[in-house]
């Protein structure tokens, strides 16, 4: 069974959200988005991204 990293690159996060990389970079620079830099490259922990998604849904009263 292959190892699946719990940390996404921006490209992987964009695919996960059905978005594009430029949107991910814009979000990464905004306050409250759970991205962080490692060696100058943005990364996103999947669990924190999932929580952020749920928070967005709750804040919009869906």
From TrEMBL:
InterPro entries: DNA-bd_dom_put_sf, HTH_17, SinI_DNA-bd, Tn1545/Tn916_Xis
SUPFAM superfamilies from the UniProt entry: Putative DNA-binding domain
Protein's recorded name: DNA binding domain-containing protein, excisionase family
Domain Helix-turn-helix: 8-54
Gene Ontology molecular function: DNA binding
């Amino acid at each position: 069974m292959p190892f699946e990293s719990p940390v996404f690159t921006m490209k992987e996060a964009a695919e996960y959200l059905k978005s594009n990389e430029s949107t991910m970079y814009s979000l990464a620079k905004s306050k409250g988005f759970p991205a962080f830099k490692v060696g100058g490259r943005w990364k996103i922990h999947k669990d924190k991204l999932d929580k952020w998604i749920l928070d967005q849904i709750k804040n919009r009263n869906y």
